[in-house]
Amino acid sequence: MKELILRILRTNFTIELGHKKIRLFLFCHGLPDRSPNFLGHKSPICYRCIGLIAGFIPILFYHIQRSNVFQLLWGIILIVPVLIDGFTQNLGLRKSNNLLRFVTGSTGGLGLSLCLNALLPLKN
């Protein structure tokens, strides 16, 4: 059962961009050097994905009552750093670190939650 869950989490596909191939993961790659240890056990989820989840959590407890355009704009702005960090590292242009992965993942998660809140507002 554990192996099946890990296979689902690591589902990926490859995109060719010129001479480079980029692997995109449906959920998380779970690379050991990019995943934290919790109580002596390696997490199957990397720092960036943990950041995405952590950034998404606040919106579950707080519904923002601003205009949808405001939320969507700020959501997109907050998603851009995680895209830049992920793609520039994936293309081999630079090397990221786990703290940066977590921080950009957190801002990206918050941005994603703002976009979803703007596009799918809760009805009172």
What this model shows, in words?
By secondary structure, the chain is of the alpha+beta class. The chain has one domain (31-119). It contains four helices and four strands; from the N terminus they run H-E-E-E-E-H-H-H. It has a two-stranded antiparallel sheet with strand order 1-2. Strands 3-4 form a two-stranded antiparallel ribbon. The longest helix is centred in the middle third of the chain and has 23 residues, at 68-90. It starts with a helix and ends in a 5-residue tail after the last helix.
Features:
4 helices; 4 strands; 55% helix; globular
Outline of the structure:
The protein has 124 residues and is of the alpha+beta class. It has 4 helices and 4 strands, in the order αββββααα.
Beta fraction: 5-15%
End-to-end separation in angstroms reads 40 Å
List the domain count as a whole number: 1
Class inferred from helices and paired strands: alpha+beta
Order of helices and strands: HEEEEHHH
| Low-pLDDT windows of residues | none
- The count of helical stretches stands at 4
The pLDDT mean sits at 79
The proportion of residues forming helix, as a percent range, comes to 40-55%
Largest sheet: 2 strands, antiparallel
What is the topology, as strand order, of the major beta sheet?
1-2
Shape: globular
Oligomer category: single chain
Q: How many beta-strand runs?
A: 4
The gyration radius over C-alpha positions equals 16 Å
